[in-house]
Structure prediction request, 708 residues.
Amino acid sequence: MTAVAEREPRTDPAVARLIADYETFVASTNGRMPAWVRELRDRGIQRFAEAGFPSTKEEWWRFTSVEPIARGRFVEPTKQTTPADLSDALRDVEAAGGRGAHVAVFHNGRFVRDRSSLDGLPKGVVIGGLLEALESHPDMVRQYLGQVADIESNPFTALNTAFFRDGAFVHVARNVVVEQPIQLVFVSSGNGEPWVAHPRNLVVFEEGAQASLIEQYAGSGGSYWTNVVSELVLGENAVVDAYRLQQEREDAFHMAASYSRQDRSSVYTSVLFAFGSRLSRHDIRATLDGEGAECTLNGLSVLRGEQHVDHHTTLEHAKPHCPSWEVFNGIYDDRARGVFTGRIIVDPGAQRTDSKQTNNNLLLTEDARADSQPQLEIYADDVKCTHGATLGPIDDKAMFYLQSRGLDREDARALLTYGFGAEILNSVSVESLRAHLDALLQARLEEGSRKRTAAK
Amino acid sequence: MLDISNLHASVEGTEILHGINLQVGSGEVHAIMGPNGSGKSTLAQVIAGHPAYDVTAGKVLFDGQDVLEMEPEERAQRGIFMAFQYPVEIRGITNAYFLRSAVNAVRKARGEPEYDPIDFLDVLDEKLKAIGWDDSMVNRAVNEGFSGGEKKRNEVLQMAVLEPKLAILDETDSGLDIDALKTVADAVNKLRSPERSIVVVTHYQRLLNYIIPDKVHVLADGRMVRSGGKELALELEEKGYDWLRSRKAVAT
Prediction:
């Protein structure tokens, strides 16, 4: 009899390297980190060490391989200098918020106060960097940080929790109505070796607060990976519309997780736009954690070339009488690929849940691909949940309908394609942002159609 | 205006129309009636240029020109309009945007200047007034979430805005309650003019109480079996389509 040698769990060298990086990082802080933050980070790296990078053998990662990230070598820039050309990179991006927006700018994940426009904030509003806030508002940060995000279900969230250096901190006090949009602009730039940033955002709307939030990700040069986690808390009766525009460079990697938790009767509208990145995965988890809370979760992906975007959404109805609406549309050109997962979880006792989910995918070429996976997990009996998905090229019936009204095939195609995007654009209530996105969408679609015409 | 001779058309190799002849003069209103499956809708779709149908023989002349070789959009640009039996939903596009795109496509083809969004609102306003409708459908996505009646009304709205020389209404009355039917018929009547021909394709005589046709044709099994004045519709209502079928059997 030979005893089976107890095998050491084989550690992925990529994971081992990150664990070593973590040791170095912690040592470099010389104990200046508050103990509770250190504990939070330790839990993050432990969880990541257990989970490792997800493989396509795992159910929720079937369609998205993170190999290029796991096998890549990304360093965290130790010294940050804000480049002089940041203004150029920012100009187009910043216009989205319109005049008067409260703008916080982040370069490679770190808050840059002197590029931000945060003068004259209304009373009861804090907008700035998370690192600063750990010193200026330690109690507020401690109350919420890591409370909404879930390191268990997402290794990238665990990794972010271990490594975050900075990010956005927004706090809107009770019953404060913020008239102008709050705009968080994340710009990546660099020219050295590939780098990674782990921005961590904490956004808290206390009871009765009201605001529009715009979160933007863009890059101006170099090869990089963004691994961002956002936590959003809506107190009772808070009314928030949040927009997220991912316009990373088309060779960049973008991993993101957005967590929201809503208290009673709060109203949350989230609209996501994914135009950029080579490979992107965005996990969205929205928890309706108070009776009568409402949540709208919309998204639009407009992809081309070899782009791959995976939206992994989970809407959890934890309390009764909550309606939710979810519409995700995708427009895929060239060899682009979109993945949508729509999980709806209705907890025991969450009666009178009313949830509607739709996912529409338009494939502009035969090589484009989309995968749609709805999943309903219902543990209550008095609920209404519907879901539907469409997938395919331009509809022949619609094409003939438009031709019969005088549009030629190309114009008809352009109109039908634009409609896929416009349906989501219409849920943007910040006028300047809608105009900005509309121009962006039209330009992108025209580029695609010009390319097609030239190829003929 | 419209001159159809010996039109044969098939879908997926099965012939549906077996030699249709039909002449519609300028300003005339013709009704084409017939039982389900008689080929009424096929005829409408062939005139509009639906790609699913193959025309194997015959001619469709519009203003003296054969339209059968034209793309559907060219037919539309020349003034042919078909109100769809089953209008299509277009996500994300409002009626106002859609109508402007259509009107501009037609104007562009005719070498006329295109409307900008602001000017077009006035145009739209004027057209709505002409048929006595409000603007409640204008800013909704095309046919999305519309009731059956709203969809049919929307087709007539498009007709009003596009001002065709020939309008073919394919079962625009089906699925309408009497109030909606009157609303639609009233608008169509307001759009009658000496320069505009209208072909009403219908299964029921009911609509013809409100849109009085100059001529009535009966289509059965892909052939025109009878043509006459408006009284033919009443006769059909009374005796049913079987009456014509049996007459035909006796005649042959």
User: Anything to note?
Assistant: DSSP finds eight helices and ten strands in chain B. The longest helix of chain B spans residues 95-109.
